[in-house]
Design brief:
The protein has about 180 residues and is α+β, with helices and mostly antiparallel strands. The chain contains six helices and seven strands; from the N terminus they run E-E-E-E-E-E-E-H-H-H-H-H-H. It has one domain.
């Protein structure tokens, strides 16, 4: 975890999630997050089957989810997420507070900072909104890829053998062959 020291107090800035092979403990992944994400916000889409580049162990990474089995999180289908609305709202409220303070104090510095804070909140909203179509196209491609993987009976059996919850409809295809 990384911290920023402000006025003698540590403030949480970001965290690193490191993932290790369950057999040899080789670090196979490292991701940065702002704040500390809850387990549900660490979800990635794709194959949960991972192979350690060091020892070759094949295992399940529980942060990865097969869309064909688990579906898409509701938040990933929205134009703007609740977190972005919350952060932008805070920016607007804080920026407005600073703007009012600048009017009463006559400080141009507060005015410039308030405009920057409000602009930052507006940019965050705009950036997420404009990326909606691209996110949905990516989710569509990932859904098709997940369905393609799940049509492979050997892949479905491997998922099941590694402890991933695979519905019977994918396993029946194996017995039909």
């Amino acid at each position: 975890m990384r911290y920023l020291c402000i006025e003698g107090r540590e403030q949480f800035v970001s965290t690193t999630i490191k993932k290790y092979c369950p057999k040899c403990h080789y670090r196979y992944s490292r991701r940065w997050y702002y704040g500390y994400p809850s387990k549900k916000n660490q979800i990635e889409y794709g194959t949960p089957i991972q192979k350690c580049p060091s020892c070759g162990e094949v295992f399940i990474d529980r942060d990865y989810h097969e869309i064909a089995i688990d579906g898409i999180r509701k938040v990933d289908t929205k134009h703007i997420s609740g977190g972005t609305l919350f952060h932008s709202s805070l920016s607007f409220v804080f920026g407005t507070f600073l703007l009012i303070a600048s009017i009463y104090s006559g400080s141009i510095g507060y005015s410039l900072v308030s405009i920057g804070v409000i602009a930052l909140g507006a940019y965050e909203l705009w950036d997420e909104y404009r990326g909606y179509d691209e996110r949905q196209e990516w989710l569509q491609r990932e859904t098709q890829e997940s369905e393609r993987r799940m049509k492979n009976p050997h892949y479905a059996l491997q998922l099941k053998a590694l402890g991933y919850d695979v519905p019977d409809c994918y396993l029946r295809r194996v017995s039909d062959e």
